[in-house]
Amino acid sequence: MSLSFNTRESIKTSLALTIAYAISLVAGWDKPMWAGVAVAFCSLSTFGQSLNKAAMRMFGTLVGAFVALIIFTFFIQQQVLFMLVLSIWVGFCTYMMGGLKNKYFWNVCGFVCVVICFGAARESVNAFDMAVLRTEQTALGIFVYSLVAILLWPVRSGKDFRQSAVKLCSIQHQLYREYFSMIVTGKSCETRQALKAQEEQIIEKFQQLLRAAEIDTYEIRKKRVQWQVYKENSLKLSDALEELQYDLNYLSKLDVQQLIPTLDRFDKELEQRFLQIGLMLQQNPPQHLPATVKLTSEEIQLDKLTALHKVALTVSLKRLARVDSLSRKMFYSLHQIMGISSTSNVDVQTTGSDGRLILDPDRMAGAFQVIATLWLSYLATIYVSDLPGGNGFISMTGPLGMIVATTPQLRVPILMIPAAATIIVAGILYIFVMPQLSTFWGLGTLLFAVTFFFSFVFSAPQKTLVKAFGIVMFLSIAGISNQQTYSFFAVANTAMMFFLLLLLLTITSQLPFDPRPEKVFLRLMKRFHNSCQYLMSNMNTPPASTPKGITAYRKAYHLKVLSMVPNKLAIWAQRIDYKTFTESSLQEVESLVSSIQAIAHCTKEIVSIEHSSPSSQSLPEVLVSRKKWYMNLQQVFTNLSHDPGDVKTDGFRDQLTELWHAGEAKVKETLDFSSDTQLSSGEKIHLYSLLGANHNLYRTLLEYSDHSGSICWHEWRKSRF
Question: pTM to 2 decimals?
Answer without folding.
Answer: 0.83
